[in-house]
Each structure stands twice: as C-alpha cells, then as structure tokens.
Amino acid sequence: MITSGTVLKWRIDHLWPQADVDLADNEKWIPSVTDFDRFVKYNWVRKCRYISEIFDCDKYALLFHATAVLYIADLVWAGVVEAKDVRPWAVGEAWGTKFRNVETNHAVNIVFLQEGLINFNMYLYEPQNGEMWIPNNLSDMVYDVRI
C-alpha cells in the first residue's frame, strides 16, 4: 500500500504533536505484516553485539532503518519486484524520553504496517530484541522521528 508522507506525518503529529518529523520521500510503501516479518528475518542488526556509547540504541535504530532501504533495493536488484511498483518503506527512527513507561533517552524504530486492504497501524519496534508495540502518548514520549 502506498501512502503520502503527509498522511504519515499526520498520524505521528496526532500522537506526539511536539515531535520533530523528517520525511525523506513524498510517498512511502506500507508493508504487510508478512512482508515485515520476512524483512526482520533478513535483517542482521539484532546479531550485532551491544557496545556502550559505540554500538548502542541509536546505532541499532539507524542500521535497522538503513537495512529496510537495502532490503527493498535487494528485491529490485534481484528482479523480485520492479522499481516502479515500490517505494521506500514506512520504517524509520524514533527518538524519545520514555518508552513503555520507562523514562530514558532512547532510540527505537517506527514502523507502519498494512492491516487489511486500506488500513494501517503505527508501531514502535525495539531493534535490539525484536519487541514491537502500538505506541500511546502516555507510555511513549517521542520527540524526533526520521522516516
């Protein structure tokens, strides 16, 4: 499912009006849950070993985001999909001061997934352990999003 950056920004602003939202492209592809699960199996970031201040939460989130870009490029390069039929995925980085009611400066990934023919939901994804949840403005405080 293709959607506009404006729609994604509205969804984010609705939950976190104070957040700075940077969208690199005008249109994004919202993958299905099945496609996202395939990507998670392809993704090698969780295999990386944590190193305090060197390879920590922001690096995990950055590389997970970058690997989502590479995953789509690999599918195009392999001839699995045509470039005209896809867009960059609606996967990015979310920086905040509270996640799942734990107050801490932290970076995770923000993911939009298609559910049904015309609906999609926003999730936060912890690339260090694979946990994913639907965010809310009481338990998750995000101040910066890059997609």
Automatic annotation (TrEMBL):
Which Gene3D superfamilies does the record associate with it? 3.30.460.70
Its name, as the record gives it, is Agglutinin C-terminal domain-containing protein
Q: Which organism is this entry from?
A: viral metagenome
